[in-house]
Design a protein that fits this description.
Layout: E1 3-9, H1 18-27, E2 48-56, E3 59-67, H2 76-81, E4 85-87, E5 93-95, E6 116-118, E7 123-125, H3 131-134, H4 142-146, E8 152-157, H5 159-169, E9 184-187, H6 190-193, E10 195-205, E11 208-211, E12 216-221, E13 224-230, E14 236-242, E15 247-254, E16 261-267, E17 271-278
Parallel strand pairs: 1-9, 10-17
Antiparallel strand pairs: 1-8, 2-3, 4-5, 6-7, 10-11, 10-14, 12-13, 12-15, 15-16
The structure holds iron/sulfur cluster (2 copies).
Residues 69-72, 75-77, 93, 110, 112, 114-115, 126, 180 line the site of one iron/sulfur cluster.
Length: 279
Amino acid sequence: MKQWHLIIDVEKCVDCNNCFLACKDEHVDNDWPGYTRPQPRHGHRWINIMRTERGQYPIIDVAYRPTTCMHCQDAPCIKAAGGSIVKRPDGVVLIDPDKAKGRPELVKACPYQAIWWNEEQDVPQKCTFCAHLLDQGWKKPRCVQACPTGALKVEYVADAEMSRICQTNNLEVLQPEYNTQPRVFYQNLYRFTKCFIAGSVAVNNNGVIDCAEGVRITLFSDREKLSAVVADNFGDFKIDNLPGNSGQYSLEIEKSGFKKATVTVELTTSQNIGTVYLG
Ligand code: SF4
Ligand code: SF4
């Protein structure tokens, strides 16, 4: 059976907030009977763009992660709601606006903090996957339609096909330890969850300090070679997707005609090692 899935590419999100505004445009002051009451103008973020920064000046990297209800297959909110939150056959999880009236405790039932309390309407609310539009034949919800970079997309496929898509594109779920089987998947989540080692390399060319373009940097852990990169024309390099707090690494920095440099790094969080000068 086909179900809806949302795929979010963290590398493509530029924090333009078009998705957030599209969600507001669709739901603020609009009542969708059977789906959800109007969303309040302020306070609710049914699509919430989280931000993280990595590294130290001048090598800093900022990433954004839009977050919605995960439309979990094994949803704790449904277990807590006694019939007032349901999972539809197409995978969408909906809070029944009539049955959930007067139940603020349901906000705490979601481990992803995706449920918001609407004081004026006296109901818990969250992302509906724009089910009122899907039921009219729309092929994507408003936030996905509004994203100018293609950071958000949907797949309406059966589980086997979704597993294949996940494998091919290296998709991950948020907080897999919650064991809720989310139907929202992330691409390039390493920008949020992993670390980098970066730096610059310079050479002394007869008394002139110059950027070491093309210098080769090889990363080792316990003498095992993990990866190798080549510095850009500013002599800058970055080795990404390393686990935080993962111990000691060594970098071998080589350029023909210069003495090889070795730098040791204790990796706790993303690290800019500064400028290494090859003599
Ligand atoms: Fe329920 Fe939270 Fe899962 Fe959404 S993310 S289905 S609100 S438990
Ligand atoms: Fe808002 Fe619809 Fe996107 Fe959910 S799917 S965040 S309700 S626009």
